[in-house]
Design goal:
twelve-stranded mixed β-sheet, single chain, 23% helix, three-stranded antiparallel β-sheet, 9 helices, binds zinc ion
Length: 394
């Protein structure tokens, strides 16, 4: 570590992490399924979006084939391409928001957007001249001081499918995608409430920067086939970590200066990566290198946040000094903890099913149906002030 201050901060962070992990909810409460579409879990996940921009104005529009219903107090506005009114502009106004469609302006304390029957819907949210993004879910916009707060609510299964689509190689076999789906669902189920007002944000803090996959895509099929299944350790779901590629053996959190009270993890053999290590190399300045140590994941993350994710891609590397630079040569991608995505793909190609893959990378766990965790049941809420920790993979 570079300074005692940083070391002290890390210790505080890890001890709070350990405390927070003890608060994980038990996966036993099975609530009645609410009336929803086929394949939904009955559990909503709330994601704060575009907060990084602190927007005072946003626009919502309906893509082709989508009808959006905007609710502002008693007013109901329908946005639809075929009707000629397909977008609305929302800005901070008075105590709430002002919604403009064409020449009509409606003021309200908040705006909600959904399908005709309150269901999830495809919509486009944009900050003019800055960013445009497509979502599937329902949307709520409120204000806090001069900033609009946009929260997308989506069914947990939609969220799982979005993560699987983003995390998987396009040619990954179905059983590998199913293993990824169970790991992602476990993370979402066990780590909710990372923020005060919502569960996850869309920055690197929570890494929920995802677009939903197409209906019928391989990711969607894998999610439907594993619906409600999560990984449990000692009868509790845990925020399962996963990594792009290990170096022939996965790592334990303890090997990397991390703690994980929810699940100990294990260092397991990964035959594929042993035979086909993913190699990388980079150069960093000697000054940047002073904070770097191959058994300190927090130091690697903070360096990569500053220099970019290609700077130090894993914790398995050797360093060679060349004048005032350090030449790094490493293998693996990501922290190396938990499920190895490259190894899981190879296991599936050789005939393993998703349960065999999961029990290989997460020994001593069970795969259990966890239809619902009660809303606001805690999870890792104490972690909200510790942005560096417990991303499933980086
Ligand atoms: Zn966050
Ligand atoms: Zn591996």
């Amino acid at each position: 570590m570079k300074s005692t201050n940083a070391a002290a901060l890390l210790i505080v962070r890890l001890s709070l992490t350990a405390a927070a992990l003890l608060l994980l909810p038990v996966c036993s409460t099975v609530l009645a399924q609410s009336v929803r579409g086929e394949g939904s879990s009955g559990v909503d996940i709330h994601i704060g979006v575009l907060g990084l921009f602190h927007p005072s104005q946003v626009s919502v529009s309906a893509p082709i084939g989508s009808a959006l219903v905007l609710h502002t107090g008693d007013e109901r506005i329908v946005l639809e391409k075929s009707s000629g009114v397909d977008s609305a502009s929302i800005r901070v106004s008075g105590d709430g928001v002002a919604v403009t469609t064409g020449t009509r302006v409606v003021r309200a304390s908040k705006l909600t957007v959904s399908g005709r029957n309150g269901e999830e819907v495809e919509f486009v949210l944009a900050i003019p001249e800055k960013i445009t993004r497509r979502y599937r879910g329902t949307l709520q916009i409120t204000r806090s001081d001069d900033t609009l707060i946009a929260i997308v609510t989506m069914d947990r299964e939609t969220a799982v499918a979005s993560v699987v689509a983003a995390e998987s190689a396009p040619d990954a076999p179905l059983e590998a995608l199913k293993a990824q789906a169970v790991a992602a669902r476990s993370y979402l189920a066990a780590s909710r409430g990372r923020h005060q007002e919502f569960d996850f944000c869309d920055t690197t803090h929570c890494q929920f920067l995802r677009e939903p996959p197409a209906y019928g895509s391989a990711a969607a099929v894998a999610v439907a086939a594993t619906r409600d299944l999560v990984l449990e350790y000692e009868s509790r779901p845990f925020p399962a970590m996963y990594t792009r590629s290990c170096s022939g053996r996965t790592r334990t959190p303890a090997q990397l200066g991390l703690s994980s009270a929810a699940y100990p993890y294990y260092s397991v053999e990964c035959k594929y990566c042993r035979a086909h290590p993913a190699r990388w190399s980079s150069r960093i300045s000697a000054q940047d290198a002073t904070a770097l140590h191959s058994s300190d994941e927090a130091a690697r993350l903070s360096l990569d946040r500053r220099l970019g994710w290609a700077a130090v891609q894993s914790n398995d590397f050797v360093a060679k000094k060349e004048s005032d630079e350090l030449l790094l040569a490493g293998t693996g991608k990501g922290h190396g903890i938990g499920l190895c995505q490259s190894g899981a793909k190879a296991m599936a190609e050789q005939g393993a099913d998703f349960r065999q893959i999961l029990s290989h990378y997460y020994p001593n766990t069970t795969v259990s149906a966890c239809p619902t965790l009660p809303q606001g049941s805690g999870g890792l809420h104490r972690l909200r002030d510790f942005p560096d920790f417990h991303l499933p993979h980086e």
